[in-house]
Model the fold of this input.
Amino acid sequence: MADKKNDRKKIDHNRSADVAALAVLEQNAGLDEGRVETAFDRYLKMQPQCNFGKTGVCCRICLQGPCRITRKADKGICGAHAYTIVARNLIRAITSGASSHGDHGRHIVYTALNMLEDKAGGYSIEDKDKLFRVAERLGLDTENKDERKVLEEVAGLALEDFIKASDDPCKWLESTVVEDRMEKFDQCGISPRGIHTTIAESMAQTHMGMDADPVNLIFQGLKMALCDYIGMHIATDLSDILFGTPEPVTTEANFGVMEPETVNIALHGHNPLLSEMIVRAAKDMKDEATEAGAAGIKCMGICCTGNEVLMRQGVPVLTNFLSQELPMMTGALDAMVVDVQCIMPGVKAVSECFRTRVVTTMSNSKIPGSYHVAFSEEEPLERAKEIIRLGIEAFKERKGQEVNIPQVKNKVTAGFSMEALEEILGAVNPEQPFKVITDAIDSAQLGGVVLFAGCNNLRVLQDHSHSEMIRELARNNILMVATGCAAGSAAKMGLMNDEAVELHAGEGLKSFIHALNEANRDKLNGNKLPLVFHMGSCVDNSRALDLATALARQWDVDMPKIPFAASAPEAMSEKAVAIGSWWVALGIPTHVGVVPEVTGSALVNGIALQIAEDVYGGYFIWEEDPAEAARKILDAVRERSWKLNLHRKLAEQYDTPVSAGY
Ligand code: BF8
Ligand code: SF4
Done:
């Protein structure tokens, strides 16, 4: 009995499948003195968590609350039913997620505009071709216009998608999704007027005494989710224009990327505006580091800022969301520079034990007691240098002292923007690159395509669901792409390189990837293709949607017909809720490995799991067990492959187009 208790305690304290994270946790647990508290401990202290919150039936929208739905009280004080409360809470989560991505995208648009007015030193148009491609996609006339003029017009349209007066469709939606989807959005009244407008609508619609109709509320939630998509697509496009479109690049991932003798700087958060500058500044400041006795400066990434600089600069991956506090506990991290989103305030307390300089940089995301170097668009490089100097100062203090870095790192090949994929596939079929994938699915060489996205969440074992599901889908010949912390997980766990293809891919997937390697032998910057293709940060889920759209266009069908699924095995943030919701509205089955806070209303839960499919073709799958989840995803894509094949054969036989609508 006692053993069982201890076992459970051990498992609970070590809620990770990442051996590097476990090594740090175990070492910490073994300390009699100086034990550091992390999220892994706080999760235990938080148990049991409140069931009203977990199922979404707690309402705190007005000051009469909180109202909780129980057997005794089946309505809130105002008479709101569980379905209203659950739906309102859900819509507010989507709104927060969309606001975060919108904020990120708008910040980059402002920087682009400031750059045009010479008020953003150090930034430039890095990818002119992408700028012109985006402009043409948006329907702008680019003839006889220079790049500055084109950028001004593109940025102008982006601002309109935030807040425009007309009810014309948002440009970033209309120009990136298949036509049938736009029709569907119009029919259902969920084509948004603009990101900011919709945020205001959603907050007003969920105010006390406003909308009580769960279906109406959920439609508004999906409209909000489409704004999340628009905001992130703007962020991706503008980031590529300012910092370059990713190309295949190989580096390493996990704690072993830290070196005892270098100034180790972690870049954490989401927005590439500062991190790109820090990477540049680090190259310039090698001498200062050498003078301090260091072998150099090493930048490395956490979360989505990490993904941004990995994709464009080949910066190594340090870790993903859940283990963000742990690199400091090796004693080898000199500075952690954070910008916005997914930064645990807990990093500050941990840093105090290890001299790490935690540096906040954004006016809307500070942590009491940490260093703050205000990001400046006018002098970003200067600020970046100021931050690196803090890291050098910390290095001087720890020089010569023992550090304890788990020697765990894995090779990762990343950098798969749509443009990079198009080129790789184009080596096989230059006329119709994406036909290489659709042909492979039609011939059953591949079973379908799955996106892994989203976070870590202490409610499940860190990285366990990601890796189990990736291995299972690989065995079943699923072509996989990944973003966000799901991509970070694959990178850390050694699933994002060519060796993983040999170890885990089924015969069809293996031969597919081998053929692409062969066709690209002299390209790929000397890299070989990985088992899972890293498409970037969470805002780059836009790239994954572009891939799905390219496949739908290639098959000439609407999205609900394509054998494509999305999965967030360890979803955590409100942004993940927004992303999952737009995948569903776009017609894609979407697995979530942590049951969201909607089960308190059978009606709302039923809409997510079933009714959504009748309307949009996409639907949610809640499944915490990774083996079961992989099976359900396989069933979903296989059913679609089978149907698509059948429809195609019938269309050929009767000489009609493959039915496009759902
Ligand atoms: O935007 S995957 S934990 S870091 S929310 Fe956050 Fe989730 Fe990571 Fe990136 Ni996305
Ligand atoms: Fe309670 Fe209604 Fe107020 Fe919500 S809005 S807290 S259910 S009275």
Q: What stands out?
A: The first strand starts at residue 58 and ends at 59. Residues 82-243 form a domain with the Substrate Binding Domain Of Dnak; Chain:A; Domain 2 fold (CATH 1.20.1270.30).
